[in-house]
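Input.
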Amino acid sequence: MSAQERLEHNSTVEDLRTIVGQYEGDDDAHFELIEGEIVQMHPPGAQHGYLAVKLARVFDAHVTKNHLGIVTVETGYIIRRSGYKDSVLAPDVAFTSQYKSPDALPEGYIPFPPDLAIEIKSPNDTTKKLRRKTRIYLTGGARVVLNVYPFEGIEICRPAEGRGVNIEFIEMEGVLDIEDVLPGFQLAVKDIFYEPDGSSSG
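Output.
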C-alpha cells in the first residue's frame, strides 16, 4: 500500500461507502477503512502495478483451472472482529473459495475476509503497516497472508495461537508453497519477479 492520508476516525462501513460515493468517477481516489479510520491510498507505482497483474494472472489461472473459487484485485473485503472497530481492506490480490461464479458476487464489498490476501510492499510502506494489516486479515478469518517484498522475497503469514502470527520468509531462490489454501499450488519465488528469459519484470 502506498502513502496514506488520514481522513476520519471512528468511521463505519457506511461512512466509507458515503465517502467513496462522493469520489465516484475519480479513478485515482481509493480508500480503505482500517479499524475505524478511513485512509486514502494514492495510486501505486509502475512496478507495484505490474507485479499485481502478474500475481493475479498466475493465481487466477490455477484457481480457475481447478474450480477453487475466485481471484480479485483491489476489491473491498469487510472484516469484523470482536472487540475491534470494523475494517474494509482491499488487498492487491485475493482469493476466496466461497464464490464459484462471478454471478454470485455482490455488487459492493465482499462481506467477509478472503481466504488468501496478497499485499505488495510499496516504497512508502513500512513493515509496521504491513504487519498491522496482516493481523487484521488473520484475526478476522483469513487463512494466509502473503506480503510481497519486490526482488527480496515473500512473507507467508498464518494465524498462531491467540492473536499471534506465524511468519515464514521465502527468499528469491525458494518456493512458495500454500497448498493448505490452494491445493496443488507451488511457485518459484523468482518467477514472480523475473521473466522466463531472466529479465526483470520491473
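The chain has a mean pLDDT of 89.
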